Amino acid sequence: MKVIGWIGTALVIIAYYPQIHHLVVERCAWGISVFTWLIWFIASALLLIYCITRNEILMSIVQVVSIIAIALTILLVRRSNRICPYHRKLSETMSRDQ
What we know:
mainly alpha; Monooxygenase
């Protein structure tokens, strides 16, 4: 069962990668809700407290990784200053369809 937990932890880390990579490379935060990410940050912080009080080491690690990734995402969204070509095209397509 521990292996399943570590695989899940690895998947959490992998899941954040595409968003953070896009923010770093393209500096594009089109469509990202900072409010939603703040809620996830608070939820992860509360879950971390819960995990620590229950001595859940693996889940504590998952929450620490989530908190770091969420904080990084919010910081990168705040510094993003453009829209990437993919999202620009998508935006133009959506505007024409309306």
